[in-house]
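Appendix B: complex inputs.
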Amino acid sequence: MSVEAALLCAVDPVGLGGVALRCAAGPQRDAWLAGFRALMGQAAWRRIPPDLPDNRLLGGLDLTATLALGRPVAETGVLAAVDGGTLVIAMAERMPGGTAARIASVIDARAVVIEREGVAFNAESRFCTLMLDEGIEADEKAPPALLERLAFHILPGEAPPDIDVSEARALLPAVTMADEFIEALTGAAMALGIGSPRAVLLALNAARAAAALDGREVVEKADAELAARLVLAPRATMAPPPPDSEEEQQQEPPPPEQNQDEPPPPDEQAPMPDPKELEELLLAAAAANLPPHLLDQAKLAALTSRKGGGRAGEARAQAKRGRPIGSRAGEPRGDARMAVLDTLRAAAPWQSIRPRPAHARIAIRREDFRIRRYKQKSEVTSIFAVDASGSSALNRLAEAKGAVELLLADCYVRRDRVALIAFRGSRAEVLLPPTQALARAKRSLAGLPGGGPTPLASGIDAAVELAVSERRAGRSALIVLMTDGRANIARDGAPGHARANLDALDAARAMRAAGVSCILLDTAPRPQPAARALAEAGAAIYLPMPMADSARMARAAGAAAQRLAP
Amino acid sequence: MMGGADAATLGGVDKVQAMAQKPRRKLVFPFTAIVAQEEMVLALLLAAVEPMLGGVLALGDRGTGKSTAVRALAQLLPDMAVVPGCRYNCDPARGCAMPADCSSQGDAMVPVPVVDLPLGASEDRLVGALDLERALTRGEKAFEPGLLARAHRGFLYIDEVNLLEDHLVDLLLDVAASGENVVEREGISLRHPARFVLIGSGNPEEGELRPQLLDRFGLAVELRTPQDLPTRVEVVKRRDAFERDATAFCERYAEAEAAQRARILAGRALLPNISVADAILEEASKLCMALGTDGLRGELTLLRAARSLAALEGSAEVTISHLRRVALPALRHRLRRNPLDDSSSTSRVERAVVETWGDEPNQS
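Resulting structure:
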């Protein structure tokens, strides 16, 4: 995997976009990187942090030099300098969406075009991108806009051998590919639930690069198989239907009708297997490399929810908009906005003793700069953790659903995000990750079945985990926990009231320790001591709702959310 | 660091002239080579013929060719005349709108601008702000125009408009509707023309636009990844062919492009002369009433879009058939709905069209 990806990428660095490597820093990754760098030869190699400001990334005005020389001095950014080489993005999982969008547009245009800060230029730049994604949690991912444009998403394994790819590179433009392969790869992508045509285009380029690497001018079956395995499989969103049943089932995604009774439309007499057959071969190749979550979602969840390691940083992203609240010393780079008056004020006392650059009326130095500070109203995510167990269902699951619906309407007005967690049976499940698409929230709620025992501790754990990850993203989170407080499944899945209750209290205390706000809506017919104790342990607002209507529940929770986001 | 004057000449006229001389036209995927996505293609053509339509909102999956289509359309349009060096894209025929800020004269031909609004852009990049460099080095209070000025007479394209902050979307729609950008900040007070076709795109699964904002886009289209294999293969083949050899690919479509361009120009010329009978006005209102759309914007857009379609097709007057064909994009986003009710507004419009005007008389 990692060897092939490196070799293909070295053969066609621009056409394949690059490689996303997901793993922590370490000797294995370093070895792979060193191997790849050797393959790329003498070309530029630029490593950037994820939050590079625009003027370093794209270019702009060099403020320090401009001030020193008293005339405007431009600087080019990394993206123009890396032309013909490799851009390495460290800690890609922390890259802000806006930065990723800018890099993506340079990749698409194959040129850096800037017109800002009084500087304008248009520089061709074609490069290959390596994203080093050190994410641990499932929500720490490299930006999707960039992932989509890189052919290979791999875990580093063996380092690539040091071979000379210059012959393959020279051969590449001459490589041809039969239409059957295009059809088969498109079909395979469709069967794997890959919507974007970019994936297929990257796969085509990968197949061509594979042929060139092998010293051939014609793409063969093995090349297409390799492309399917390397490019398509990691992007799959669904497992392909088993090949045998496909023809009878007439499932929606692969429409095989056309190919059943008549030969494929173009090129009747090509010496190729027909696209349908090819497609199945490619699917089989891809299946060997499907991402683990398709095959075993639970395993991945266990793998990615491991706590500890790499703090993604609690610190909230610095506000760049909102109400101005004074200024502080700092450089007006990137998104920071200069506080002009404060800057001038800082420079004023020194004017008589500073040498003044020619033509300048005032002498301003780097240390005079003041930038504005803003206070931003932070977004709120309401996490609904709903007890869908038998005891709750008996009591008032329907009522709780009604309350959640009213709360959702309320969230819609405030433009909050919502997430939905249900717990029943042996575990808690995130039915809906945080989203602003409230119609989806309603849909998943309506389909929520009730019944089974109550894994209360797991439910609280899941909600807290989600709240913490929301906080990492700079939003405040509110948990709305709806339960009757009667736990009977412990954290490890063992039945029994006593253990389960202890675990639930424990989870509630962890919630308090994490500092997450919570409202506990007691859904039992009359207030339960268990639920009250739970609320106390978790420092949650306790709202017993005997005979209460959903409207009252919603008002109570709405008021709490309001308090959270002044 | 760049080596001074020739690499990036700074300051007003020199810079822009240098850029205009540079052969900077890159080959863009031809508009006529776009496969499927008929609704998007039609909406863009209508907006190209009638810029007052109020922009296009395209909702759909990643990789359905939204930005390709916008860029392709801009490429299709004939070059426009500008005052060289004018930072506001002024039309030389009308004279510069910002004489105080722009000393240039004459005219030059430049491609129609397509300005991308990147996610996370700040308000001052959008509306413009104090020119830092001039303020600091020369102590002058000068205005540095923003993206709105650059988009004047062209297109402003916002990917993921649903993730853009509300106050920016408000501002954009306001400028798009009034055609003028009013700046009052940092001691700068000015207004400059900013007439552009606003194209927003986004994936509705990732967040919703407020209904007030939805309503202010002229047309709304829904895009889906084609679900049949032959179409998808064709999409991939054409894109691949384009990427392998853009020159040859564009050559193949040159004739179709020229024909489409002629159609748009003819449509633009015809547009002012198209008559709308009172009976047609009545029919448009009837449909809007049946759907219960709020306000008059629905009727207006429906009529404008129908007129634009008539112009594009070279007919002298608007007919029911024109109304019928633009009803979906003109109205689907204006229905009053429960935010939590996701029953498709597309089917509601389709139903209302059939109820008001009966079934389509023989699809031709």
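The radius of gyration of chain A is 29 Å.
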